[in-house]
Write a structure and sequence with these properties.
Elements lengths: L1 H8 L5 H6 L2 H90 L1
Helix pairs in contact: 1-3
Length: 113
């Protein structure tokens, strides 16, 4: 594509005019084309490197998102377990309070005897 652009923008040189053109002009045009081709290669290499870097970042983001989801699932499971433990604590506390009351009543009855 760049070569075509250079060819289209460069002055048209017919075989007859190439013979009559200044000797340095042809060399100058060849050097410009060569420079343009080198620049095109450099830009392509940079674009390829940028694509590779973007792909690597995308893979890391996917991996990180998966780890975040795993941690969120662990947190959710821990919260559910904690709720269950709080419920069990409430039941045990109520049972303990009931036994205390029963023991206090028993102690009071024994004291009266």
């Amino acid at each position: 594509p760049l070569l075509v652009a250079v060819a289209l923008t460069a002055p048209a040189i017919s075989p007859l005019s190439a013979e009559t053109a200044e000797p340095g002009e042809l060399e100058k045009l060849q050097k410009e084309i060569s420079t343009s081709l080198e620049r095109q290669k450099e830009l392509k290499a940079q674009a390829d490197a940028a694509r590779a870097e973007a792909e690597e970042i995308r893979k890391k983001l996917i991996s990180t998102a998966a780890r975040v989801q795993e941690h969120e699932a662990d947190v959710t499971a821990s919260e559910e377990r904690l709720q269950g433990l709080k419920g069990a604590e409430a039941v045990l506390t109520a049972q303990l309070e009931k036994r205390r009351t029963e023991m206090a009543d028993l102690l009071a009855a024994l004291t009266r005897l």
